[in-house]
Amino acid sequence: MTTDTLSGQSTMAEVLEAYSGAQRSLMRGYHIGGCSSCGFDPSDRLADVLQRHNAPDAEEVLAHLRESQEQEERIQIDPVDLAERLKGDARPRLIDVRDQREFDIVHLDGAQLATQEFVQEMMSTWPKDTACVTYCHGGMRSLDAASYLIGHGFTNVQSLRGGIDAWAQTVDTSLPRY
Predict the structure, then answer these.
(1) What integer pLDDT is reported at residue 54 of this predicted model?
(2) I need a labelling partner for 24 at 20 to 30 A (CA). Which of 3, 73, 106, 142 fits?
């Protein structure tokens, strides 16, 4: 199913397939799909899910999903482009959103692990226009983290497309992969 053929009659599985960030976008915009009380079954029709949650009509929600998908594309940076930025004077801060075990296996030079204390420091002391790039293993958790930071007022945040795994395949093949 393509994004052009989605409608209120589409299943949630079709919506999630068409928009890779639909789960994040539905939760952020309408509090749908993030917990057991607001969840849905993949076979549920979009219109039925929206009605159960007193959400706007399917056309409005699908427009929101399109816009969110476009925003997610804009905030991602390819590994080669990040490598170029890191060579310049205006280096972005690197924020590793994986766990300590993953960080210990491999991380980018100069990256800071996003511990609870570190995130609290960011929120309370960093200027909101600080250039930063989040990354994880494959690019999904870091996209969530970048969206979170943007939602909290940060204006210069990107997420490494494909995560450190893509970096290890395209920029620095000497890095271990897991």
Answers:
(1) 92
(2) 106
